[in-house]
Design brief:
The complex is a heterodimer. Chain A starts with a strand and ends with a strand. Chain A is mostly beta strands. Chain A contains no helices and eleven strands. In chain A, the strands form two sheets. In chain A, strands 2, 4, 5, 9, 10 and 11 form a six-stranded mixed sheet that branches. By secondary structure, chain B is mainly beta. The termini of chain B are far apart. Classes of the chains: A mainly beta, B mainly beta.
């Protein structure tokens, strides 16, 4: 089955700097890679996702890149702000019907220092 | 994005009692809902996959008689923790995927269960 590794487990950056979180996956059939942000005491919120037919996707200060050959994908947050502080989870799945559960990484705790 | 709600957000119950948690998709029809359990500072642990109108598929190690899951409609799934014990105290989160959105899964806000 699929296995997702996520690094680093914790990340501290100064406000305004960039943050990068990296994930690798094992199943070459996986074709969907979402990123979730989870604030304390809340459920995960989908912030960006990418499908296997695309190499990069950007949404304002957030971008995700995908390297299918190397089987890794990364989250990039630019101009970080204190409200970006949270736990970020990457995930992967192979889905043709929406019934497949996501396989999550272990999460990265991002702290943005003002 | 789509909205998923959970009720209650917090619940405290006594050992031996049962508690029901509801998960609703508010603006879309969810053919599949997933139930997760999350321990402090840990990742999400999948408990079961629930398809509307059929029995849930439980992950290895999850007691189906203890964690009863019902997905009776396209907008509602329930998780009932039966004969709760303190070790069942946890953060329970559901997610839902729509019939048309075959990739995206949206999470509810979670339910904090404390068993005393």
């Amino acid at each position: 089955g699929e296995n997702v590794e996520q690094h680093p487990s914790t990340l501290s950056v100064q406000e305004g700097d960039s943050a990068v979180i990296k994930c690798t996956y094992s199943d070459s059939a996986s074709n969907y890679f979402p990123w979730y942000k989870q604030e304390l005491g809340k459920g995960p919120q989908l912030i960006i996702d990418i499908r296997s037919n695309v190499g990069e996707k950007k949404d304002q200060r957030i971008a995700v890149t995908l390297n299918k050959t190397a089987k890794h994908f990364s989250l990039h947050i630019t101009e970080t702000q204190p409200e970006d502080s949270a736990v970020y989870f990457c995930a992967a799945l192979y889905s043709g019907s929406g019934n497949t559960p996501l396989v999550f990484g272990k999460g990265t705790r991002l702290s943005v220092i003002a | 994005g789509a909205v998923v709600s959970q009720h209650p957000s917090r619940v405290i119950c006594k050992s031996g009692t049962s508690v029901k948690i509801e998960c609703r998709s508010l603006d879309f029809q969810a053919t599949t809902m997933f139930w997760y359990r999350q321990f402090p500072k840990k990742s999400l642990m999948l408990m079961a996959t629930s398809n509307e109108g059929s029995k849930a598929t439980y992950e290895q190690g999850v007691e189906k008689d203890k964690f009863l899951i019902n997905h009776a409609s396209l907008t509602l799934s329930t998780l009932t923790v039966t004969s709760a014990h303190p070790e069942d105290s946890s953060f329970y989160i559901c997610s839902a995927s729509s019939a048309t959105g075959v990739y995206e899964q949206y999470f509810g806000p979670g339910t904090r269960l404390t068993v005393t």
